[in-house]
Amino acid sequence: QVQLVESGGGLVQAGGSLRLSCVASGMFFIKSFNFMGWYRQAPGKQRELVAADSSDGSTNYAESVKDRFTMSRDNAKNTVYLQMNSLKPEDTAVYYCKALITSVGSYWGQGTQVTVSS
Question: Is the model's pLDDT at 55 over the cut of 80?
């Protein structure tokens, strides 16, 4: 199957930056995935999409993070990244990586906490 492990979260002041990593391991390489994305869940709120693959090969971003966050991947390292700049307190959440292989199923990582202080 597939295991996803996120890292890179932490405590940062407003205006700062963090880079999250999601390393995939198991039977499949990330270039085989049909879909990858980053989601987040703040306390008391539903999990929401932050950045994800689009069907046309581009990346979709939530309006709240556009021009601040960038999703990228390194196939050689089997890793997907989320570069987060100009962080705001409202970005505080647990960030999750998701992968989908159409013929197999979807997978989630365990999450990494991001806390932005004002």
Answer: no
